[in-house]
Q: What sequence folds into this?
């Protein structure tokens, strides 16, 4: 019988960097909280709760999809701790209220089976992508390894931000910020593609590469790496602005094979001065 209450991680965690560091702190907190509880056992590769079908927490956080169990007191305590570390990425559901989990039970069962098989240490921090020249597109990002759906591929703060209302205002607001960058950063900014050669290079580069800092925002951010991600009508990734942390993220929304280009969708119905993604 499936559990009636639980919570899912959405999108799922990436296999390295900040996500895994945060997951380790979360796991340590859980172990401390339940250290005297006979129903909670620390195994070699996961924490086991003897309270339900999906009541396991792996030590490799990118494998985690769902926690559920009865009595609900355990589930609620783990939920509170997880939200302390991962906030709105933790999605609670309850069958009694007509809610269902994001992942199917088959997906969850497959992920749990992986808990017993730790990843080889060399693969955990392997680069996910490389920058390549792509015919008729310029530079783009190509996956170096198979990337599971939900993986955070990139997290980057903007090199430069500017209000993207009109070209004249754009140059006035962005020029001082460009001058404030180091010479190395200025060279990297000026190396980005410019689809508007008839305009001032500053205007053209921002208009070509800026992503909005939030849905509908007139403030755009230019990134050294994320700005290289090309458009597709059928993208394999989704970009999102985090206003609290002040950074942009790229997550895989379906499995991406090694050698495949990483793409997002540029919303064409918005201002031509900035590329706007559709965010779910």
A:
């Amino acid at each position: 019988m499936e559990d009636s209450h639980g919570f899912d991680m959405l999108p799922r965690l990436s296999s390295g960097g900040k996500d895994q560091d945060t997951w380790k702190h979360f796991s340590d907190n859980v172990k401390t909280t339940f250290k005297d509880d006979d129903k909670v056992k620390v195994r070699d590769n996961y924490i086991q709760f003897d309270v339900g079908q999906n009541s396991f927490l792996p030590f490799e956080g990118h494998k985690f999809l769902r926690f559920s169990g009865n009595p609900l007191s355990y589930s609620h305590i783990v939920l509170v701790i997880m939200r302390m570390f991962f906030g709105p990425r933790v999605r609670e559901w309850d069958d009694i209220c007509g809610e269902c989990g994001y992942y199917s039970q088959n997906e969850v069962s497959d992920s749990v089976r992986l808990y017993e098989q730790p990843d080889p240490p060399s693969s955990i921090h392997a680069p996910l992508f490389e920058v390549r020249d792509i015919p008729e597109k310029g530079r783009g990002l190509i996956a170096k390894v198979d990337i599971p759906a939900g993986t955070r591929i990139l997290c980057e703060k903007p090199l430069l931000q500017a209000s993207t209302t009109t070209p004249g205002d754009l140059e006035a607001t962005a020029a001082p910020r460009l001058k404030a960058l180091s010479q190395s950063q200025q060279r990297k900014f000026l190396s980005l593609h410019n689809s508007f050669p008839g305009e001032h290079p500053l205007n053209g580069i921002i208009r070509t590469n800026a992503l909005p800092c939030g849905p509908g925002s007139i403030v755009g951010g230019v990134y050294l790496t994320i700005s290289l991600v090309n458009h597709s009508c059928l993208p394999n990734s989704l970009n999102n602005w985090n206003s609290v942390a002040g950074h942009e993220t790229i997550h895989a929304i379906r499995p991406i094979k090694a050698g495949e280009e990483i793409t997002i969708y540029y919303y064409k119905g918005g201002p031509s001065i900035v590329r706007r993604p559709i965010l779910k």
Notes: Confidence is low (pLDDT under 50) at residues 268-280. The helical segments are 18-33, 72-86, 105-113, 121-124, 167-180, 183-190, 201-209.
